[in-house]
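Problem 3 from the worked examples.
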Amino acid sequence: MIKIIKKLYQWAKGLDYRLKFLFVGALNTAVGFISYLLILLCWNIKPWYSVILHSNTAPLVAVFVATFISQILGLINSYFWNKFFTFESKKKSKIETVKFVSVYAFAFGMDYLLKWILTGKVGLSQILIAIISTLVTMMISFFGMKFFVFKHHKQKINQNTESASTESETAPTETANL
């Protein structure tokens, strides 16, 4: 199992940072969802599948606690994966951490606001609301990470692009000389 994880990680390291962001987002979703269910299970809510199928089987306080803790765990997971894997940031900065939390706080706030508006004012189905709010939150998070939190990564991308274009400009000349 460890070998499979290492191979998957090595493969994913070669991906474009946008695909890495989506990969990390899927991982965060899994961490949040699984931790949410485990916390509710620890709360001794039985049967476990009733938490997923019926909204009124869990005490409201358990839902709030599980939501809060799972979002914190997802946030911590997201920070480390996005910092070191997606944007490959080497900086040791408290400001970067504060910016990261700020972006996610804004994204969470927009998520709740959007769900409130779409549920109460527009009356869309919860599945459609979840899809819309997830897409909006994902875009806020991505652009917040790229242009606000890990903006120094943008310089690294530009440097890589410039060096690749310089190499492609010199390559035909070198082959012509052969």
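Problem 4, a separate protein:
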Amino acid sequence: MNALLVSQAAAQFGSLLVYIMMTRWRVAPWLRTLSRANALIALLWIHVFRYVALQAYSAQHSGFPISDQGLRDVVLGDVGGAILAFAAIALLQMRSRLGLFVAAVLVAETAYDTVTNIHGGMQEHLLGAASGLSWFILAFYVPAVVVSAVLIAWQLLSRRHEPLVAEMGVEHA
């Protein structure tokens, strides 16, 4: 087993564990103090930066052994996710319930994108092949995207009977 594969897997698992504990101890209690719309908006911002996947073009040029089709799949999935996240934020800022639908589509798109990227990476023998910025993105940003997608789904389901914005009271942002 190569050291890059072990280090990447350990960093991803470690990041996932840290994000889960941070969520349990700090993020989930904080989200409960926010309106439904603002809680979702806070979580959606993490996805807006998924266009960082465009870096994969540079990685491929520098020797990352991803196929052109695999590269297109990664970039389209992540840039599409970034666009959906930004659209959901804009709609929720306008207090449009359509933002809830777009956020739900983002959760489904993120689940699909994650599974297909793992499958594609296994088929192309990419696990453990990343280095530099690609390694950093896979080790730290991808787990944050996964955890935030789960949190978005949680907010959509657990608060489905709440209005987007509380009628009265002060919100802590």
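Solution to problem 4. The two ends are 46 Å apart (CA to CA). Residues 81 and 110 are 7 Å apart (CA to CA).
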